[in-house]
Every structure is written in C-alpha cells, then in structure tokens.
Hints:
Blueprint: H1 3-7, E1 13-18, E2 20-23, E3 31-40, E4 42-43, E5 46-47, E6 55-64, E7 67-74, H2 78-86, H3 106-114, E8 128-132, E9 135-139, E10 144-148, E11 155-160, E12 169-170, E13 175-176, E14 182-191, E15 194-202, E16 221-227, E17 241-242, E18 246-251, E19 254-256, H4 258-262, H5 264-267, E20 275-277, E21 283-289, E22 294-295, E23 299-302, E24 306-316, E25 319-327, H6 331-335, H7 338-341, H8 345-350, E26 356-363, E27 385-388, E28 393-397, E29 399-403, E30 405-409, E31 421-426, E32 435-440, E33 445-450, E34 454-456, E35 460-463, E36 473-481, E37 489-494, E38 500-505, E39 515-520, H9 526-529, H10 533-547
Parallel strand pairs: 23-28
Antiparallel strand pairs: 1-7, 2-38, 3-6, 3-39, 4-5, 6-7, 8-9, 9-10, 10-11, 12-14, 13-14, 14-15, 15-16, 17-18, 18-21, 19-20, 21-22, 21-23, 24-25, 25-26, 26-29, 27-28, 30-31, 31-32, 32-33, 34-36, 35-36, 36-37, 37-38
Amino acid sequence: MMDKIFGKNKKEQPEPVKAKVTGKIPAWLQGILLRNGPGMHTVGETRYNHWFDGLALLHSFTIRDGEVEYRSKYLRSDTYNANIEANRIVVSEFGTMAYPDPCKNIFSKAFSYLSHIIPDFTDNCLINIMKCGEDFYATTETNYIRKINPQTLETLEKVDYRKYVAVNLATSHPHYDADGNILNIGTSIMDKGKTKYVIFKIPATAPGAEKAGKSPLKHTEVLCSIPSHSVLSPSYHHSFGVTENYIIFLEQPFRLDIPKMATAYIRGTSWASCLALHREDKTYIHIIDRRTRKPVPARFHTDTMVVFHHVNAYEEGGCVVFDVIAYDDSSLYQLFYLANLNQDFEENSRATSIPSLRRLAVPLHVPQNAEVGSNLIQLASTTARALKEKDDQVYCQPELLCKGLELPRINYAHNGKPYRYVFAAEVQWSPVPTKILKYDLRTKSSLNWGEEHCWPAEPLFVPTPGSCEEDDGIILSAVISTDPLKPPFLLILDAKTFTELARASVDVEMHLDLHGLFIPDVDGEARKQVPSQEQQDGALVGEAAAQT
C-alpha cells in the first residue's frame, strides 16, 4: 500500500490532462490550485534517505467554467539537472549526504566543505509556493528560491536570498500583509561571529516598478534581528506568527549544531543528524513590536516543544494570543526516513508523539509589582496562563485545544485577528493524513471528510467572493488513492458543512504534496490584474483593522 505513496518515482505530466468531474463545481471558482512536494526519491542506482529530500514535483489544477485540467512537472533546479545528468544523487539534501564520483578528487571536494562553516545548500525547492509581486516562487528552507511559471510550471531563474538579506536559512511559510508585502524570517549563521534570527520584508511592488525587470526582492528590508541564545546552536524554525502589531517567533530547543554541520561531509553523516532536541532547555517566546521593530522587553518561555506550523495569532485584552501545532519531541522528522515509512504505520505511531493544537497567551506588559507565581492572563476566551517568575521571567502555560491534527490552514482574511475555524489534516495512527477536518475553536467540535484508501493533502480554504462569514467558501485538497480502481482526484468541499460538492479525477501518477496556494482568475490578461488569494485576504484584514 505504501509503495504507491512513497515508493517509485512519479511520472510528470507536463501537458494538461482533462479531469473527469463528478458533482458540481461552484461557478465562481476560477483559477489555479498550485501545489509542491517531493516526487522523485531514486536517481539511477542511488536513493534519498528521507522523504523530505525528494526532488520537487510541481502540480496544478486549473479550474475554469466547471472543468478541471491537471498537469505536473519536475522543478528544473540546478540540483535536479546535476543529478539527472550524472544519473546519481550528487547534490546533498538535508537527510542525504551526497559524495562525488570516486574518479574525481575527493580531497578537493572535502576541502571546499571545510573552507566554509556553512556549505552551499540545495535549490531543490520542494516545500511551498510564494507570491512575490507579480511572480511566483517555489520555496524550501535554504537561502534559495526558484521562480516558476504558474500556468506552464516552467522553471525560471534561481534567486539567492543572500544577495538581499544575510540569511542562510529561511522559512517556507511567509506572511502577507494588507498591502501584499511579504514578511519572513531566516537564520543568519556566524555572520561577523554572531548567529541571529532575521525578520525581513519584501515589498509587494518595487519602487519604479513601471520599468521592466524591476524586482521587489531588490528592496528587501530587515525589520528586526533576534540574537540566538546559542551562537553555535540556533533553533530550527518552519513558520512564525503575526498579528496587526506584533510578530511571534518561537526559539525552540530543537536545534542545529553548527560545528557538526560544518564537518558532516568528512564525517560521512547528513545535516539532519546535526539536529537534536535539548529536552532540558526552554522554548523561548519572542514578541516583536512591528511599529518599533524591537522585541517586547519581558522574557517569556514555555515548555519544551517542537513546532512546525503556527496556525494564527491575534491581540486581545493587552495580550498576544497564538495557536500552534506542537509535538512533545522531534520524532516526526525521524518517522519520515524512507526506511521507517516502509514499516507498519501503527507500530511507528506508538513511537511518535501525537501533534496537538495548543494556545498560548503572552501579556504585553508585565507589572513590576506582580507577585511571583501570579497569573498575568485574565481572558475569558482561554485557560492559557502566564505565571510571573523570578528575574522578570514569565512562564506561559498553554491550553490544549485538540489532538491529532497537522497542516493547518485558516481563512486568511482572519489572519492576525480573532478567528473561529481551523482547517487541517487529521493524523492519528498514520504520518500521512487519513482525513481532513474543520475544527471549531468556539464549540471545540469538528467536522471531517475521509474515504477508505484515500490520503488527502493539506486542505486549502478559498472564500466565496464577497463573503462575510469566516467559513463561507470551499475547501480544496489533492487526494491520492491506494485503491487501484480509484484514480487520484481534486476534492472540493463546502467549507460550512464539509459535504462534498465535486471531485475531479485524473488518470495520472499523482504524488502526495506538502503546501501550495490558489491563484484566482488567471485567465488571459486578468492574471496580471488580480492579486493572489493571500493579498486579497490580507486586504480584508486591513479593512477590518481600519473599522475597529
């Protein structure tokens, strides 16, 4: 069964294939669902160790007038081209260290790794899709992104963040403000002897954008930097949170050992082996004021946890409240080694912590006369607490909301403000989602969709045009099947009721993807006029903030 999900390489489908639609697609739903994820794990006689190492395979569903066309294409990164030309893996990924041809001088290769503390990373951008100005980029967690054509899936130029901001790593989960500007965070390792987390902004449009070739990336601006608690062991981070006035960053004890990374090649180990959870350490909560570009002075921390995905954050009653999907350990990354994925899922699940939706509340002002042990949170909306400790430190005790969900998405119009619904994948006994669900934060109840032998990807919410209610829209999810009689399909659900409206089945080798976005109204010249879904939703955030 799992061979169909994680086994053989997937064939690309560069020419559009018309899907068989059953049910009725809403007439207003027009655009492209663009997704990204690993699709090739074997090159020649060599094989990647980890599922997250696989070569990026883009795929898209073009929805127009009730019909759907599917296509897929491998990202023609430098990594892809070098591997295919050599017919073997020659570029290292995070869980797989590649070595040169034995006929070549191995000593010169090793010297090139030792001559830099941080080696040059891969441009195999397999995690997400980012909109920047009028352009779209495939992203990963290194300093490289790759521009793509969302209509044809053609790979365009390679961009190195380091030309614009001093970061060696950057998240694949940026945020978009009301004007369409990008906010992101990256790690600057040993820059002038310091390791720090850098928050930066890429404008939606470049000054003088009327001139051809003007890229917003050239006007990237550093908003703030946060020194790492350890120069040689920075925190891993996959996402972060934002509100109207604040940025939330978790410096977690899941950390990267820089000396080990610098010597990984000659030691014959992967970079992933340099990541470790330090259970004795705290998870530090950094709150940055977007207006002053400085951290809130109080020092906040919470329990040891590993967080890949922030859900949402908002301000209430003098506090920043934020929701995350948290793990008690780092076993999730271990689980996705291909050798482990070939084992029995239920056996694996017993060795893996179940992700949980947790809410934390951080007071923006800590009274100097507050007693040690006193709770600084007085919100009726949450049982999360913030307990005053000695030396002006504050321990934030989370509220457990729900267990067994991952890959969270929301109606992005409610990003940064109070919200009610989380759309996510349900993960209980399997590392691969078996269902998708809608979780109601107010009633603590949920709706779900699932079907035997079906494995849905991250659910993406698309609002009905002109809608006012938070769940007025549809859910899109690419579903693969391990039933030989059931082809993969695009699932379209009513977001209110979670009932199926339609599905678009395609007779192709579809892969399990990770993240992506919906690009509305891309027909003809309209694609140049219509902003991305995140920008449209961000504009709603701005309008709502102005009204309040």
